[in-house]
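input
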Amino acid sequence: MKRSVRASMSDAQKFSLVRREAMYTGLALVGLIVFWLVAGFGTAGVDAKIFHVPLWAVLGTVGVWLVAIVISFVLSRVLFRDIDLGGDDDGR
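output
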């Protein structure tokens, strides 16, 4: 169940929360890029194969997608909060 912050928050608190979430998302992107570099280029010299495909190709493609999914799951469950940003709710 997603945590929801429905209590009245000031605009400064909302901005701080959005800024924190953006910072962690940027850090997640940097971590994903580092993983891609290490998994793809770092394992290029390894002669291992998975289903007759070089390890670097599997880790540099499918591995990156799997890590991105895990990172997204962790960000959404642990760090992100559902808050009311204001504005008109037209029922959409």
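quick obs: Strands lie at 4-5, 49-50, 53-54, 82-83.
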